[in-house]
């Protein structure tokens, strides 16, 4: 397999914006879980405390997986690694079984701040999963603009 320079559909500004969005939620979640969330969890009945813990762990797992994937794609876009290296199996988005599983029973009783962060982490993770699927599609190995120009040349 020959190595190629990054010519993927994701550009630096898009990746930077996505990374910044994910990191902002990481920081907000960390502040919440260490502050207001700690008090909110303590005020919950025992069964909901377990749900709070499980869902907060799932949220942080989603975010860390997304951030790691975005950092790898940024490295590819910057030319530090090739697209093939960025899409290698050990660099792919992990934790899908946990991250995409439905909310735990009882999660509807969680504090609204945590629920909002859980939903936002899911949206970020879902978006990254879709991007990865697009990049792994056979036709994604070529820049979409180049694909269209090739089709026009053939016509």
Question: What layout of secondary structure does this protein have?
Answer:
Layout: H1 12-34, H2 36-42, H3 46-77, H4 83-86, H5 96-99, H6 112-136, H7 144-154
Helix pairs in contact: 1-3, 1-6, 3-6
Structural account:
The chain is mostly helical and 155 residues long. It has one domain: Helicase, Ruva Protein, domain 3. Helix content is 68%, strand content 0%. Helix 1 runs antiparallel to helix 3. The two termini are 30 Å apart.
Using only C-alpha atoms, the radius of gyration works out to 19 Å
Helix-strand string: HHHHHHH
Compute the separation of the termini in Å: 30 Å
pLDDT averaged over residues: 87
Quick structural overview:
The chain is 68% helix and 0% strand.
List keywords for this structure.
7 helices; elongated; single chain; 68% helix; 155 residues; disordered N terminus; Helicase, Ruva Protein, domain 3; mainly alpha
